[in-house]
């Protein structure tokens, strides 16, 4: 087997199919240290596809990456760019190694990479074979196999992920070698593939299907003695290394070779004229080979990940033979494409299962009484295997026995579609370790996994890209390219559900004069499910969902209907309990029933969501079945749950700073009460989108929740987490509602909080105007302490406007009011702001006295957030005094504290000042490290932070980055 790598055909040539090597301009180049070579091998194995930095880290280090792993990756990337393109200017875009966000893609084509050339040849060979050009196909197969000079990168597989990547390429070779061997046999050209197949078999000495092909080729080429020698060697090796005998496939080939001709001690000279079927298959009269699969969809697209899972399981079975068939149970909501995918997959894998394909629709998605019984199913399967009707036993147990006897040792695919329960499937599993059983069901068949060892595969919605392909593949041809934006609108309106997309395409085919825009507008304007019509075969979304709903218990059905008014993208089990007005244990049982019906999905432990069309169906039922009073009570309970839970979480986050408490709790509501700071922060992280929408929902007076009270509970989390847009949105909504209701208290609090959001967007004058109005209202309401907050906030804005004297007066006034009211925590805040402003005015000595006093006073209340803020001010003061190293130490202490309490906004400020100090010390390497930390932190801000955030970070970008190649 020669390799194209020995004589590089182009200026650049990458070899991975064997030892890793690289040529440039005809000269072989050193590819660097071991880890760099492993990285290059990974990029070559994924040629043409982006490889994320995280995957690179996994492949190079496995489960134990070093702290500097990402920086090392960037250095290797830079070195590889210079290896391939030594004349590439600094920061110039490489034409070979292209960056995509946090990923890199090697762009070598078939003229420069043996991996790409191999895949290209194989794809062309398979296409020619489908077009019945078998001779040309065999020639391309042979060229593809001859690109290999040995197993792929075996010396670089130092981690589990690396082994998986390179082993996958080797498996591709073995699969292609077997395809080519089968084709050579059919063409009577065994000699063409003998040498390549001998080499491939030597690289996987326990691969029984590969050795079975080699034995058959040797026999057909007249080397019968060598064929039996291959079998004897394989048997010895299996016995010594695994303690196993050869499997049925190799034994069957040996027996067929024995039946064709005796083996003599001398090499064969006379070739017997035998056919492929004579050697590989028993006579057709001995066995019935059913081929019952429904036709494959001619425009099937997507589901590559699911296909890879099943083919991977089959490959594992080849490598680690089992005593039972591989059973794969596909579950998912109605309309997600389980049956379509199962049929497509069965067609794809049919060539590996030469004893036939059985198909049975168990009708489990119809009414219960129409489901196929065990006796009916077994009778149909026995008939399919050639058993006459008169010979089928009457007793089910006897039918099971006959079915298992007939299926023993067979290589079959059994597709059991629309199963309702495990009991339907269990008797239909064949008695053959070489068979594949595909089961589709809306219910996850956990019992099959527990007893039969089935692999459960949840069929989720396709990705946006795959959904787009599904629609485009089915649209009628018009000669014009569809508008991508309109296509995406339709995909979104269909919720990516394959059934809905297929119905839209079918309607377009029936009405070719309709424009895509008209279809999209119709989907948007019509009631959500009405737009899909009603199929006579009950194959429309409403009919599909209705079957699952009819099988629910009364309380589960009620919860399903109530979930149509959930807030946000998902809902917790605790919120479901309040929504239904029952206890958590009961609710969890009902949720389990709903997930079992595939009407809702548990997207993470204790959180549930449902498809947009399923939710529309639930809403139809909610409006039709539940009374207006019941609907209002459910909505009230849900909003009260979020109001009181958010208040409890705020208190856990800031126990020293409680917002205005909520009004009375609705009956049968059990709020969540996070136990500590970390649990509360995690709760806010999870529920943030829900709470934002809840503020808008609360503007409906019927539910008895004042939007401003709920919005105030979110301010501290929004400020810490830099969710400034959310902060501004919810407070604008709250202020509008308070003004509508002429609620002066709500207006005052909303104005002051909204001013805070404006402050972070740099809208300083607007913030001052809002604070002026808030101050007037708090004065009229006789709230002196709240007025103190207003003075503090005004000082913050005036500092940004560099009106430092005015700011100092505001802080001093706030300090007096907090001392009077006995609010020590706010007193400390005012003290620290006074010290900071004095520093801005140049009074450094007094500023330090104030700040150190504030720090000592803060120890009395233990407010970590305030400690971080004071240390930031002290660091800023030391920076102004050019005491940069003291400043860095103080600021690093601040970062630790602020990171601990999750205050990303202040942590970001501290990091920027550390960068300034390192730059002043001309330590660019330390500056870059800190800059990258700040950059990564800013990426977690909502929308990447405000324009000010970006500008401040860019202004401090160090002049040179020593870390990135």
Automatic annotation (TrEMBL):
DNA-binding region in chain numbering = 1-108
Q: What are the coiled-coil residue ranges?
A: 874-901
InterPro entries on file: AAA+_ATPase (IPR003593), AfsR-DnrI-RedD_regulator (IPR051677), BTAD (IPR005158), OmpR/PhoB-type_DNA-bd (IPR001867), P-loop_NTPase (IPR027417), Sig_transdc_resp-reg_C-effctor (IPR016032), TPR-like_helical_dom_sf (IPR011990), TPR_rpt (IPR019734)
PROSITE patterns, alphabetized = OMPR_PHOB
Domain (OmpR/PhoB-type) spans 1-108
Q: Name one GO molecular function term.
A: DNA binding
Q: Which UniProt keywords apply?
A: Coiled coil, DNA-binding, Transcription, Transcription regulation
User: Which Pfam family, giving just one, matches this sequence?
Assistant: TPR_12
Q: Does the keyword Flavoprotein apply?
A: no
Membrane in keyword set: no
Q: Which family does it belong to?
A: Belongs to the AfsR/DnrI/RedD regulatory family.
Protein name (database record): DNA-binding SARP family transcriptional activator
């Amino acid at each position: 087997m020669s390799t194209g790598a020995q004589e590089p055909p182009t200026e650049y040539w990458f070899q991975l199919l064997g030892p890793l090597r690289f040529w440039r301009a005809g000269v072989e180049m050193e590819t660097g240290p071991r880890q760099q070579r492993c990285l290059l091998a990974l990029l070559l194995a994924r040629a043409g596809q982006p490889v994320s930095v995280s995957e690179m880290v996994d492949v190079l280090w496995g489960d134990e990456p070093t702290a500097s792993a990402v920086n090392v990756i960037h250095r290797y990337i830079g070195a590889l760019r210079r290896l391939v393109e030594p004349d590439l200017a600094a920061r110039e875009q490489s034409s070979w190694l292209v960056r995509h966000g946090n990923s890199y893609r090697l762009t070598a084509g078939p003229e420069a990479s043996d991996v790409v050339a191999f895949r290209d040849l194989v794809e062309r060979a398979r296409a020619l074979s489908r077009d019945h050009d078998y001779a040309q196909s065999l020639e391309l197969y042979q060229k593809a196999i001859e690109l290999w000079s040995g197993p792929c990168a075996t010396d670089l597989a130092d981690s589990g992920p690396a082994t998986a990547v390179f082993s996958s390429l080797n498996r591709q070779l073995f699969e292609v070698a077997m395809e080519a061997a089968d084709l050579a046999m059919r063409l009577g050209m065994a000699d063409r593939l003998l040498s390549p197949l001998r080499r491939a078999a030597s690289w996987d000495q326990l691969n029984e299907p590969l050795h079975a092909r080699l034995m058959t080729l040797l026999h057909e080429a007249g080397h019968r003695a060598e064929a039996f020698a291959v079998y004897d060697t394989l048997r010895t090796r299996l016995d010594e290394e695994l303690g196993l005998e050869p499997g049925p496939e190799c034994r069957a080939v040996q027996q067929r070779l024995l039946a064709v001709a005796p083996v003599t001690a001398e090499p064969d000279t006379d070739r017997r004229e035998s056919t492929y079927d004579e050697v590989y298959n028993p006579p057709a009269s001995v066995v019935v080979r059913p081929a019952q699969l429904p036709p494959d969809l001619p425009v099937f697209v997507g589901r590559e990940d699911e296909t890879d899972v099943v083919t991977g399981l089959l490959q594992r079975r080849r490598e680690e033979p089992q005593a039972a068939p591989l059973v794969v149970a596909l579950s998912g909501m109605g309309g997600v494409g389980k049956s379509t995918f199962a049929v497509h997959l069965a067609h794809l894998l049919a060539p590996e299962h030469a004893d036939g394909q059985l198909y049975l629709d168990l009708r489990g998605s119809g009414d219960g009484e129409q489901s196929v019984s065990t006796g009916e199913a077994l009778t149909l399967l026995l008939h399919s295997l050639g058993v006459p009707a008169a010979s089928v036993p009457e007793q089910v147990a006897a039918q099971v026995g006959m079915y298992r006897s007939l299926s023993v040792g067979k290589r079959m695919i059994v597709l059991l579609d629309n199963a309702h329960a495990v009991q339907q499937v269990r008797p239909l599993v064949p008695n053959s370790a070489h068979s594949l059983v595909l089961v589709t069901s809306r219910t996850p068949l956990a019992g099959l996994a527990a007893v039969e060892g089935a692999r459960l595969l949840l069929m989720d919605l396709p990705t946006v890209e795959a959904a787009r392909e599904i629609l485009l593949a089915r649209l009628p041809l018009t000669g014009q390219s569809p508008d991508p934006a309109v296509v995406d609108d339709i995909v979104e309106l269909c919720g990516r559900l394959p059934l809905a997309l297929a119905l839209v395409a079918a309607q377009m085919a029936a009405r070719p004069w309709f424009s895509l825009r008209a279809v999209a507008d119709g989907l948007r304007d019509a009631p959500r499910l009405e737009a899909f019509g009603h199929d006579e075969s009950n194959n429309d979304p409403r009919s599909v969902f209705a079957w699952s709903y009819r099988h629910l218990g009364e309380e589960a059905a009620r919860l399903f209907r109530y979930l149509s008014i959930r807030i946000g993208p998902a809902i917790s089990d605790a919120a479901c309990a309040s929504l239904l007005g029952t206890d958590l244990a009961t609710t969890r049982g009902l949720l389990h029933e709903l997930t079992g019906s595939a009407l809702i999905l548990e997207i993470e432990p204790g959180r549930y969501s449902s498809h947009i069309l399923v939710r529309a169906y639930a809403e139809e039922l909610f409006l039709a079945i539940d009374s207006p009073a019941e609907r209002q009570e459910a909505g009230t309970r849900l909003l009260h749950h979020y109001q009181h839970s958010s208040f409890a979480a705020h208190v856990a986050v800031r126990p020293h700073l409680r917002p205005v408490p909520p009004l009375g709790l609705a009956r049968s509501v059990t709020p969540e009460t996070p136990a500590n700071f970390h649990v509360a922060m995690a709760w806010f992280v999870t529920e943030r989108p829900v709470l934002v929408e809840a503020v808008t929902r609360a503007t409906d007076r019927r539910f008895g929740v004042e939007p401003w009270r709920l919005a105030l509970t979110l301010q501290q989390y929004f400020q810490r987490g830099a969710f400034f847009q959310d902060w501004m949105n919810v407070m604008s909504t709250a202020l509008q509602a308070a003004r509508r209701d002429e609620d002066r208290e709500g207006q005052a609090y909303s104005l002051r909080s909204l001013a805070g959001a404006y402050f972070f967007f740099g809208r300083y004058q607007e913030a001052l105007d809002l604070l002026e109005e808030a101050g007037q209202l708090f004065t009229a309401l006789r709230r002196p302490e709240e007025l103190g907050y207003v003075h503090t906030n005004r000082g913050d804005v005036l500092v940004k406007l560099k009106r430092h004297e005015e700011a100092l007066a505001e802080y001093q006034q706030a300090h007096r009011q907090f001392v009077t009211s006995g609010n020590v925590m706010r007193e400390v805040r005012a003290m620290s702001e006074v010290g900071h402003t004095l520093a801005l005015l140049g009074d450094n000595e007094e500023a330090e006295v104030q700040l150190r006093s504030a720090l000592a006073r803060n120890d009395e209340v233990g407010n970590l957030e305030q400690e971080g803020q004071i240390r930031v001010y002290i660091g800023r003061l030391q920076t102004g005094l050019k005491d940069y190293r003291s400043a860095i130490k103080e600021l690093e202490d601040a970062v630790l504290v602020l990171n601990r309490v999750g205050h990303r906004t202040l942590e970001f400020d501290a990091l920027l000042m550390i960068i300034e100090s390192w730059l002043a010390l001309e330590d660019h390497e330390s500056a870059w490290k800190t800059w990258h930390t700040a950059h990564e932190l800013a990426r977690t801000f909502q929308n990447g932070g405000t324009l000010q955030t970006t500008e401040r970070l860019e202004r401090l970008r160090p002049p040179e980055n020593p870390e990135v190649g």
